[in-house]
């Protein structure tokens, strides 16, 4: 028998006050019986409440399935090569195996780790047929398509080492009753810091300035002609979840003219007031008001190609765009064209529609008419060493819960058994 009750997770933020969620939950369970206790917990900080309650999941399909010791676990990670040998804190690499090797072996599990992920002969496609658990990372995404789900007959759990599980076909996961979990919150500060850095480097025209110095040149006017201050600009985020909200928080001391957000989920009034953010409900209206737009929503059916030629035509001329969410949210060619024409002054981010990005990907070299405006880097904003510690620990804790048949943290569940648990991957 399972008793699960978390009704307050279904409340929407703007209807409740900060004091309205006084209870926490805990659960004990035997293989057959799960008992849920409600208890009064210490008042959480309001950032914690915002993340865990307002952004939280319903968490009502968190039952785990029976698991056998020795079940194969497959991890697709990126190669760290020399860097990973020299730096053991590069946990998210093939070499350092999320720091899980010893523990998993001691538990009797087979742990297969590889970076080979493309095509039928890849380790990913070879081993997915036997794996019970798949660990992937957005930084080197192993794309678990609907076709591969058909072959993954033994698969029960997908764990994303990081945040963002769009590389898993989530509708197929629902259909096949495979749970998808990620380590929510693990790298959101890392990304928010990168967003602020990217805004500054675009607005202040930093990259061409540095390149000029490396070349041995010195011509201040060539840089200053396209350098501005962030102060006094209108900055808006598409998506005001964990990252988007942290970006807004970090912008407050810059004295922007206004902070805006566009999200189908309204911020709790207290949260919006704390950063003085105004919600704009129409996307075209929203982008037409912004000097700087940052994208901080997940990639799903409703956001793929969201920033396309049509939407870009509603941007202010000379606006800057920062996207560390997912490359495919922005139309590759439309962005390159807008930058080339000067309609966009700059585009920066670390996410690409294909990863690793091909050598001739237009985003590597695109420039504005003055030869700047490109702040692209490889996908690393959420994989700082600090973040790697957090998401490696988070993956371990998800696996521990799974092996011990304990409920998972609700905020980590993207897809539960046969249904979406998150509210962030589109309105359903
Ligand atoms: N570059 C990196 O290293 C990196 C690291 C972490 C996360 N990310 C990306 O950032 C995304 C957001 O992460 P988060 O932790 O803030 O997630 P989150 O779930 O806390 O917040 C996502 C927000 O986006 C909103 N949203 C969803 N669809 C939308 C739409 N169509 N229009 C406007 N808003 C919409 C949701 O309502 C939610 O408020 C992740 O899904 C991932 O793709 C990138």
Automatic annotation (TrEMBL):
Q: Which domain of life is it from?
A: Eukaryota
Q: Which reaction does it catalyse?
A: formate + NAD(+) = CO2 + NADH
Instruction: List the EC numbers from the record.
Output: 1.17.1.9
Compartment list: Cytoplasm
Protein residues bound to substrate: 163, 187
Kindly state the subunit structure of this protein. Answer: Homodimer.
Indicate the family of this protein.
Answer: Belongs to the D-isomer specific 2-hydroxyacid dehydrogenase family. FDH subfamily.
- The name of this protein is Formate dehydrogenase
Q: Which gene encodes it?
A: FDH1_2
């Amino acid at each position: 028998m399972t008793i699960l009750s978390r009704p307050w997770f279904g409340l929407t933020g703007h209807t409740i006050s900060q004091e309205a969620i006084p209870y926490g939950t805990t659960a004990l369970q035997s293989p057959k019986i799960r008992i849920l206790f409600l208890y009064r917990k210490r008042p959480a900080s309001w950032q914690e409440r915002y993340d865990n309650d307002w952004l939280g999941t319903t968490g009502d399909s968190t039952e785990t399935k029976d698991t056998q010791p020795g079940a194969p676990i497959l991890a697709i990670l990126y190669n760290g090569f020399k860097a990973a040998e020299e730096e053991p804190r590069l946990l998210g690499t093939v070499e350092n195996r999320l720091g899980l090797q010893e523990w998993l072996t001691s538990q009797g599990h087979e742990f297969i780790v590889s970076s080979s992920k493309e095509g039928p002969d890849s380790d990913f496609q070879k081993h997915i047929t036997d794996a019970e658990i798949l660990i992937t990372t957005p930084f080197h995404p192993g794309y678990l398509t609907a076709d591969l789900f058909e072959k993954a007959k033994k698969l029960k759990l997908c764990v994303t080492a990081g945040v963002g599980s769009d590389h898993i076909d989530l509708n197929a996961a629902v259909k096949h009753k495979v749970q998808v979990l990620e380590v929510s919150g693990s790298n959101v500060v890392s990304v928010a810091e990168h967003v602020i850095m990217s805004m500054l480097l675009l607005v202040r025209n930093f990259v061409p300035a540095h390149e000029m110095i490396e070349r041995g040149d010195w011509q201040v006017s060539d840089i200053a002609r396209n350098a501005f201050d962030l102060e006094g600009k209108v900055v808006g985020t598409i998506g005001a979840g964990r990252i988007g909200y942290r970006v807004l928080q970090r912008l407050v001391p810059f004295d922007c003219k206004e902070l805006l957000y566009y999200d189908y989920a309204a911020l709790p009034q207290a949260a919006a007031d704390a950063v003085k953010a105004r919600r704009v409900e129409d996307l075209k209206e929203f982008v037409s008001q912004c000097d700087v737009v940052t994208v901080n929503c997940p990639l799903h059916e409703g956001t793929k190609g969201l920033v396309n030629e049509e939407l870009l035509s509603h941007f202010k001329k000379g606006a800057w765009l920062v996207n560390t969410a997912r490359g495919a949210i922005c139309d590759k060619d439309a962005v390159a064209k807008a930058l080339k024409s000067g309609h966009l002054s700059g585009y920066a981010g670390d996410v690409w529609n294909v990863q690793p990005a091909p050598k001739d990907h237009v985003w590597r070299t695109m420039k504005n008419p003055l030869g700047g405006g490109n702040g692209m880097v490889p996908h690393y904003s959420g994989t700082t060493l600090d973040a790697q510690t957090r998401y490696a620990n988070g993956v371990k804790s998800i696996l521990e819960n799974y092996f011990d048949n304990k409920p998972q943290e609700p905020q980590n569940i993207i897809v539960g058994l046969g249904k979406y648990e998150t509210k962030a991957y589109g309105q359903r």
